Amino acid sequence: MTLFEKIVARQIPADIVYEDxxxxxxxxxxxxxxxxxxxxxxxxxxxxxxxxxxxxxxxxHLLAKAPEIARRAGVxxxxxxxxxxxxxxxxxxxxxxxxxxxxxxxxxxPPG
Length: 112
Ligand code: 5GP
Fold this sequence. Notes:
CATH superfamily: HIT-like
Distance between the termini: 31 Å
Bound molecules: guanosine-5'-monophosphate
Number of domains: 1
Oligomer: single chain
CATH topology: HIT family, subunit A
Strand order of the largest sheet: 1-2-3-5-4
Strand content: 15-25%
């Protein structure tokens, strides 16, 4: 079971901000911005690079929900960034696909 599957199963506590049949969103334990939410599919896909064609509807749903969750978190008008880290050089540390929703301050570009 992945760390985020344990959060989905309520085996590990998290500050959950959104849930439906397919996805769960909760606040990052180590926030990098005033708003830092992780949006995950409930059924684990290790990373975007391992997603299968059968995952398309889940991925589409996840991406479509991100703006709603950002709006609920209060950054819909000020702006936000969606980030999916993939693999070692991408900065992935938890092997359960997740989309970071970051906002609440100006974010620099390019990332370091
Ligand atoms: P990655 O580096 O894989 O893209 O992002 C993993 C994220 O998960 C990191 O931002 C990290 O702070 C967050 N994280 C790691 N463990 C936990 C946890 O137990 N609870 C929550 N809410 N976030 C976690």
